[in-house]
Amino acid sequence: MSAPGGMAPDYSSRELLITTIAGLLDGVRHVAVGASSPIPAAGAMLLRARNEMSGREAVRVSILGSQEHNFFTNGGAEVFDCAAQGRIDAFFLGGGQIDGEANINLVGTGDYPMNEVRWPGCFGSAFLYFLVPRVILFREEHSPRVFVPKVDFVSAAALTPDIPRRGGPYALLTNMAVFDFDRARGGFRLRSVHPGFSAEDIRTNTGFDYEEPASVPATAPPDPATLSLLRGKIFDEVAETYPAFARSMMEAP
């Protein structure tokens, strides 16, 4: 990541991601975050803190595995119950592979069931993809091996035109860019490119096709007030569930 005049930016790449996530979540009331998701969790907490400070509608953040930031008493089962009842507005999904139709693969590469590489599994992703209105796809790695023309195995399908549903992909965030998902067209559109990267970098490192505006804006960096909030209240809160992550963020130069 570069800054004007060759100077180093005063924020880290992960602080940029967290700030961007908070923007993508703007307007939601309840965000659920799965296990091992410190960056999405921090983004949800940042949105909650901003709303509290501005007097806007309160945001509930439910983080699986957290004792403080989780009102569930029966683990993941209650996440599925809440989603089915329409009580979760936003969730995060990733994948070893993601294709241009926003299908995700959490099973492995190669021909199923004789996969060359095996990943942990679907963990209810197909269920949540159907039911949560604002699913944000998130992968820090932006490369052709992740973003493929067609996933080897569909763990969760983005579009099923013959089955009405309220859920589906909303955006895709990576370490290089932000994409919006066009449900009518069934594909992605490049929204912005993170500082330090170009539209050409995104095209080179993306294995599927997507729409692109004539002029691609840069992703907005965190302002000083946001950085102060992140490095104080937010990382203190994140430390309850993700102590190693919070420590690494607070120790970062």
Overall mean confidence score, pLDDT: 92
Percent range for β-strand residues: 15-25%
**Largest sheet, spatial ordering of strands:** 3-8-10-11-12
Structural class: alpha/beta
- The ordered H/E elements are HEHEHEEEEEHEEEEEHHH
For the biggest sheet, the summary is: 5 strands, mixed
Give the CA-based shape: globular
For the secondary structure, the number of strands is 12
> What integer value in Å does the Rg equal?
18 Å
SS field, number of helical segments = 7
Approximate helicity band: 25-40%
Description:
The structure is a single chain. This protein is an alpha/beta fold and 253 residues long. Helix content is 30%, strand content 18%. The protein contains 7 helices and 12 strands. The protein has a 5-stranded mixed sheet, sandwiched between helices. The chain has a 3-stranded mixed sheet with strand order 5-4-9, with no helix packed on it. A two-stranded parallel ribbon has the order 1-2. A hairpin with a 4-residue loop joins strand 4 and strand 5. Helix 1 packs across helix 2, helix 2 packs across helix 6 and helix 6 packs antiparallel against helix 7. The longest helix has 17 residues. The protein is globular and about 45 Å long.
Considering the chains and any ligands shown, give keywords for the structure.
disordered N terminus, alpha/beta, 253 residues, three-stranded mixed beta sheet
Outline:
About 30% of the residues lie in helices and about 20% in strands.
How are the SSEs placed, and which strands pair?
Blueprint: H1 13-24, E1 30-33, H2 38-54, E2 60-63, H3 76-84, E3 90-93, E4 97-99, E5 104-105, E6 108-109, E7 117-118, H4 125-131, E8 134-138, E9 147-148, E10 169-173, E11 177-182, E12 187-193, H5 199-204, H6 224-238, H7 243-251
Parallel strand pairs: 1-2, 3-8, 4-9, 8-10
Antiparallel strand pairs: 4-5, 6-7, 10-11, 11-12
Helix pairs in contact: 1-2, 2-6, 6-7
